[in-house]
Amino acid sequence: MYISATDLNGNWFQVGLPFIVGGGSSDSAPPAISEIDAPTTVSRSETFEITYRVTDESGVATHPGSIPFALVRLVRAGYEFGDEDDIRGWFTVTGAPVLDSGDALDGVYHQGFRGNGNTRPGVYEVWLIALDTVGNFAFTRTATTLTVTR
Question: The whole model's pTM is what?
């Protein structure tokens, strides 16, 4: 590990220090996401849910309030996550992810959505984000899509 500092006069200093992690986890794999179930077609103002399974040897992490860190993003087909066209808020999230069955090691979750005034008709891809308790992170562009109609 290196630590560096610069003062207001531009003087710079860097020092290298040994850094050893002890007692860490052997889990180095991100959570696995599978069994995604989404409606094929939804109307622009329809409320719907997407269901998915997340497995991990250390367990899915939780946000404060025990909300699972296993969530869905919907991105217009042909765009990347975070593109300007993606961040316009095409959908309103109707609730936090919910663990329906199983546990943090192997659980089935759902998350609800509703189109809003910004929702454009077209194809949207399901992306899933999951974090385990030791910090491994999955950010997955899945093959699952849904089509929004007027």
Answer: 0.79
